[in-house]
Amino acid sequence: MSKSSSSQIITCKAAVIWGCGEPLKVEDIQIDPPKSTEVRVRMLYASLCHTDIIRAQGKEDPLPLFPRVLGHEGVGEVESLGDEVDGLEEGDYVIPTMLAECGACENCTSAKTNLCLTYPFSLGGLMSDGTSRMSIKGHTLYNMFSCSTWSEYMVVDSKFVCKIDPSIALPHASLLSCGFSTGFGAAWKEARVKMGSTVAVLGLGAVGLGVTEGARMQGAAKIIGIDKNIMKKDKGLAFGMTDFINPDEYPDKSISQIIKDLTGGIGVDYCFECVGAEYLINQAIQATKEGKGKTIVIGGGIKSVKIDYFPLLSGRTLKGSIFGGLKVKSDLPIVLEKCKNKEFHLDELLTHEVTLDDIEKAFELLKQPDCVKVLIKI
């Protein structure tokens, strides 16, 4: 039941995809009122993440679901809310999150993980009760993860949103709901990069640049950025990168060997794979120090990987990460405070902007070498 007077079905525009590889169509959809623990949000901005592209193409998607409204990064204003929602009011600005934090389960009380057991990470595309709050022409519409941000309105469980200070630039807030925060958290919370250490970052998109910023703020002495796009060099330097590698300039050397050449032959303390490629995961492991090197895998898009065994046997660690190890209630507010205090270089990420009606252009813009992040104005 909704606390608010606005408890009617809303018809609004959303970017709908009807099947793997099909174009997005901006169509009228229906948004139900929020149930008891949910909020309905009027979206203001969204952004495009690599994971959205994977879902749109249907490639390596563990659970392809259609028709669907994509988008999991965004920021909006609470329009109405259920009667059991605490800590939020109509008019509050919020960002959606793919994870929740109950604060009481075994995982939430552990410093080792951010994956709540009470409200688990879901790929099912539906609300916790197994239904959807979106429909089109009589068809159920599936969410991206916990919600769908490429829509004028969306419904999300209140446990999967984070209230933000209205003084934070809204385009910046959209970036913090996944990509940049995932990278920053991976360096800060997942790897816990130490002062004076060495770091390599494979892929300098929004996630990789978040890793770079996090490693810089943690006090890393050397941060090596690796990307085939030479235009990412200036972006990396702005976020704290100390060395840049374009693998295409070294046709006779592996990426791991180039990294070792920059570190006296021993490799780095931490390597972050931000692309999601089997070859790069193995190169990341081999680029770290024998006996104690740590590789953090953040890139999505692969179902299975064949790992070279001996580098792991030699004492290295391989660890996966979702949302950079950030706990939504405990850690994300700290990230938001840093954003409010302008400690991040987020303007460097926002290279292009489109409207919801022109969202198909966003996929083309991402192919341009100077594009890092596309903002969707809703």
From TrEMBL:
SMART domains, A to Z: PKS_ER
InterPro entries given in the database record: ADH-like_C, ADH-like_N, ADH_Zn_CS, ER, GroES-like_sf, NAD(P)-bd_dom_sf
Domain Enoyl reductase (ER): 19-376
Keyword Zinc (UniProt): yes
BP-aspect Gene Ontology terms: formaldehyde catabolic process
Keyword entries, A-Z: Metal-binding, NAD, Oxidoreductase, Zinc
A GO CC term assigned to this protein in UniProt: cytosol
GO MF terms, alphabetically ordered: S-(hydroxymethyl)glutathione dehydrogenase [NAD(P)+] activity; zinc ion binding
Cofactor(s), by name: Zn(2+)
Gene3D superfamilies: Medium-chain alcohol dehydrogenases, catalytic domain, NAD(P)-binding Rossmann-like Domain
Membership in a protein family: Belongs to the zinc-containing alcohol dehydrogenase family. Class-IV subfamily.
Quaternary organization: Homodimer.
Protein name according to UniProt: Enoyl reductase (ER) domain-containing protein
Taxon lineage: Eukaryota, Viridiplantae, Streptophyta, Embryophyta, Tracheophyta
